[in-house]
Model the fold of this input.
Amino acid sequence: MILPSLLRAGDLYDKFFLEHTIRVDYYHHGTKDEESFSLDKISKEGPWAGSKVNLLDTLNLGEYLLRVFDQSTTELIYSRGFSTIFNEWRTTDEAASGVRKTFSESARFPYPKRLVQVTISRRDKRMIFHEIFSLSIDPNDPARVRKEKEENRNVSALLEHGPPERKVDIVILGDGYTREELPKFRIDAQRFSDALFITEPFKSRKSDFNVWIVDVESEKSGIDIPDLDVWKRNALGMSYNTFGSARYVLSEENKALRDAAARAPYDFICVLVNDTRYGGGGIYNLYATTYTKEQTSGQEWQMDYVFVHEFGHSFAGLGDEYYSSSVAYNEFYPPGVEPWEPNITAMTTRDKIKWRTALTTGIEITTPWEKAEFDSIEALRSKLDRLAPDYYEKREPLYRAAMTVLRTSAYSGKVGAFEGAGYASRGLYRPSVDCGMFSLSLVDFDPVCAAAIARMIDFYSK
Done:
């Protein structure tokens, strides 16, 4: 067997893969305590847009791990970490009650020249991956692999800095835009692309990205809002109220979304929803979403924040550092388990903290901060109804007070271990007092998050 480390980077791709992309659609079933998989269909898509150099995942991110083996040599030829909607759903009350649910998911990788074995593994509580699904694929079997038909969707570039295989390729889609509103979609896409690239470290690495937009036409304007009994059932199936959270926007129409994205070369997907309720979502190596119409004048910056924050989840696997907002999860980070996310830790010993090399010299671990003062303000804010028409008016003085605490903190700009992260007020720690993954503000990512983003950019562009 030829080990990948003994092959030149380009040789590994040329030895095992063709220029196209293979997409495996499958179903992910289960409850809180069980899960299984079944094959849906296999498709041949357009040219492979990912790196032809970094084929094996070295980042150790995601709840799941896709591996592709060449069957004749048993050699590992491709791998990627990822997370799923299923994994989030299984932490909800519904899953805990024994309800069995099915989600459509997709695995994409370079088109193999010959028979491969595709496996999916999942982390245990010690963060070790164990195989839970395996599938043999013959890419040369026309009865198994379909060639997807080209659809007449307009694709254009907002940023184009080089060949897709040497750049990070983002595709921006829209849901809830009628044909008449497609010009608004293009304006929105430009706005949010601009918002991303004025934020560090994306600003400094802008030349490493391509950004594509694909026009997706919906029958009606807006998306589903189940708690208001509003149903649009548009092109990509985006909806508020995911897992009962009014502001959480995801879709269970995976194949429709993948079909739309496939019109452009892409590594990562962003979806803009043409609606006014504050909201969005982001899952690692799946997609990021954000709303695009702000009801209250002067608050439009919040849309930019949501876009950048959610992209931090989907692009770099960053965890939420906030802990005072309500979520539908039960023990999303179980006690005694070190999170895989690069910006959250349960460790309180200096030499075991995952960002120990970035710690500010001499800083105390755990790091004291003005938590009691911040929490008292957040307790008042949490009593407000986010959907009420006077929400912003009532929130404004509390928001200013909270931002003052963070910006005037004695530990501002320092890297330590600050208690309060991952939806937990106690027991989990974040790297900095403030960050784009913590507060509702257009601040840059802290040094630990910025380093994680830079690693991902390098992985896809070098």
